[in-house]
């Protein structure tokens, strides 16, 4: 009898996503992303400089996974 083994969870890669990448991954535009952040429903942006922000890729991926889990 063969036992089915599940692969161990691969640790999420942490890198900084810029706004265009976040928009592409979520399908949301800037205004909606910032609105969700303000409501506490989307990961907060990290300040990278005076006029630059980014998001932790692992947090965004987890947010997407959570939305998909809610569908099930």
Largest β-sheet summary: 3 strands, antiparallel
Work out the strand percent: 5-15%
Gyration radius over CA: 15 Å
CATH architecture: Orthogonal Bundle
The helix-strand sequence is: EHHEEH
- Helicity level: 40-55%
CATH topology: Recoverin, domain 1
Number of domains: 1
Q: Total strand count, please?
A: 3
* Class computed from helices, strands and strand pairing: alpha+beta
Strand adjacency order, main sheet: 1-3-2
Oligomerization: single chain
What are the low-pLDDT stretches, counting only 5+ consecutive residues below 50? none
Discrete helix count? 3
What would CATH call the class? Mainly Alpha
Indicate the overall shape.
globular
Overall pLDDT metric: 89
CA-to-CA gap between the ends? 31 Å
In short:
This protein is 44% helix and 11% strand.
Annotation keywords:
single chain; alpha+beta; 3-stranded antiparallel β-sheet; 3 helices; globular; AlpA; Transcriptional regulator; Prophage_regulatory_activator
Overview of this structure, please?
The chain is an alpha+beta fold. The protein has helices at residues 19-26, 30-38, 57-71, and strands at 16-17, 46-47, 53-56. It has a three-stranded antiparallel beta sheet with strand order 1-3-2. A hairpin with a 5-residue loop joins β2 and β3 (53-56). It contains three helices and three strands, in the order βααββα. It is 44% helix and 11% strand. It has one domain (16-71): Recoverin, domain 1, CATH 1.10.238. It comes from Ralstonia mannitolilytica. This is Transcriptional regulator. InterPro entries: AlpA, Prophage_regulatory_activator.
């Amino acid at each position: 009898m063969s036992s089915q083994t599940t692969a161990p969870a691969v640790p999420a890669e942490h890198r900084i996503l810029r706004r265009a990448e976040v928009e592409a991954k979520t399908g949301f535009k800037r205004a909606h992303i910032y609105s969700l952040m303000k409501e506490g429903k989307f990961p907060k942006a990290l300040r990278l400089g005076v006029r630059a922000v980014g998001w932790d890729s692992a947090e965004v991926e987890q947010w997407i996974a959570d939305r998909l889990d809610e569908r099930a």
